[in-house]
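Support request from a user on the community tier.

User writes: "When I paste my C-alpha cells into the form, the page sometimes reloads and wipes my input. The last time it worked, I copied everything first. Here is what I submitted, just in case something in the input itself triggers the reload:"
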C-alpha cells in the first residue's frame, strides 16, 4: 500500500516542481518492472538508480527519464 501511494505522490510532485527548482537538479527515474509491468516513477537527487519499489537484489533496476531544474 505504501508503494502504491508513493507512486502517485512522485508523479504529482514532479509536475509541481517542473521549472521551479532554484538550484541543483532532481531526477525523475522510472522502472518498467514494478506494479506487474505497469511501471513506476520516483524522484531522486542523485542520478544513481536506487529503486524504492523493488527488493535489494534489483535496487539498480530503472533509468533516468527526465531532469528537473
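"...and here is what came back when it finally went through:"
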Amino acid at each position: 500500500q505504501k508503494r502504491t501511494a508513493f507512486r502517485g505522490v512522485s508523479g504529482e510532485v514532479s509536475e509541481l516542481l517542473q521549472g521551479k527548482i532554484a538550484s541543483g537538479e532532481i531526477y525523475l527515474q522510472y522502472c518498467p518492472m514494478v506494479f506487474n509491468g505497469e511501471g513506476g516513477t520516483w524522484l531522486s537527487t542523485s542520478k544513481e538508480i536506487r529503486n524504492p519499489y523493488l527488493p535489494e537484489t534489483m535496487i539498480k533496476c530503472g533509468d533516468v527519464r527526465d531532469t528537473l531544474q
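Agent notes: The reload is a front-end session timeout and is unrelated to the input. The two ends are 30 Å apart (CA to CA). The mean pLDDT is 88. Escalated to web team.
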